[in-house]
């Protein structure tokens, strides 16, 4: 089944293909940027979304949680220099990135619209988004904001699981979370780089991407 929907990332308005999945929510594929997105009618309300996030057990002192975040923090470290100012965008209720970056002698602000709604600085040397992109209702808006917060050569580190094929998507664990609304493909990052002026420095399939603003 196809439907005329506007892609929330690239804005393409051509017909979108319904993607088969085991969960009882509707997801559509954009053939232009390769994003798969949840139909807006299936989104949780903001209150429901916040309540669901509050159930996450993200303890910054938990060794397992720190090891998980290290999938992004470890490759990012090689690009960081002492004195840099960073931002953990979408840090959730238990931010841990500042701990993981402590040895690099960089500072890292924690920002989350629900749990840490701090005023953002004009620009940051680097931004990390760990398990955040999949929650973007309007990824075009969020990516424009992220790009505006980075100077030339600023770094954007992303960790979000990527869809691999329609067969993979059908029973993918990532779709079981009702707050996951945007799903990126490896080719989606090529579109993002072209649109927002980034280059892809690293791709560690299927979850980690490091981009640099050109």
SSE pattern: EEEEHHEHEEHEHEHEE
Mean pLDDT: 95
Strand pairing plus helix content: what structural class? alpha/beta
Q: What is the subunit organization of this protein?
A: single chain
Explain what the structure shows.
The chain is globular, with a radius of gyration of 17 Å. Strands 6-5-7-8-11-10 form a 6-stranded mixed β-sheet, with helices on both faces. The protein has a 5-stranded antiparallel β-sheet with strand order 1-2-3-4-9, with no helix packed on it. With 214 residues, it is of the alpha/beta class. Helix content is 25%, strand content 22%.
Topology:
Elements: E1 2-4, E2 15-18, E3 27-29, E4 36-38, H1 46-53, H2 63-77, E5 85-89, H3 97-100, E6 107-111, E7 126-130, H4 139-148, E8 155-159, H5 166-170, E9 182-183, H6 186-196, E10 198-204, E11 208-213
Parallel strand pairs: 5-6, 5-7, 7-8
Antiparallel strand pairs: 1-2, 2-3, 3-4, 4-9, 8-11, 10-11
């Amino acid at each position: 089944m196809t439907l005329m929907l506007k892609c929330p990332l690239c804005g393409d308005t051509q017909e979108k293909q319904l993607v088969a999945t085991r969960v009882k929510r509707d997801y559509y594929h954009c053939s232009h940027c390769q994003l798969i997105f949840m139909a807006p009618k299936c989104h949780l309300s903001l209150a429901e979304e916040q309540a669901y996030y509050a159930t996450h057990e993200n303890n910054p002192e938990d060794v397992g949680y720190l090891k998980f975040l290290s999938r992004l923090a470890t490759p990012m470290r090689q690009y960081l220099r002492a004195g840099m100012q960073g931002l953990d965008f979408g840090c959730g209720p238990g931010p841990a990135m500042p701990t993981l970056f402590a040895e690099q002698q960089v500072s890292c602000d924690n920002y989350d619209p629900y749990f840490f709604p701090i005023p953002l600085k004009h620009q940051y040397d680097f931004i990390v988004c760990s398990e955040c992109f999949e929650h973007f209702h309007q990824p075009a808006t969020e990516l424009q904001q992220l790009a505006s917060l980075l100077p030339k050569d600023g770094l954007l580190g992303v960790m979000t699981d990527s869809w691999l094929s329609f067969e993979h998507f059908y029973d993918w664990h990532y779709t079981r979370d009702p707050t996951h609304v945007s799903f990126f493909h490896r080719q989606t990052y090529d579109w993002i780089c072209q649109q927002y002026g980034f280059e892809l420095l690293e791709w560690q399939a299927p979850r980690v991407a490091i981009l640099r603003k050109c």
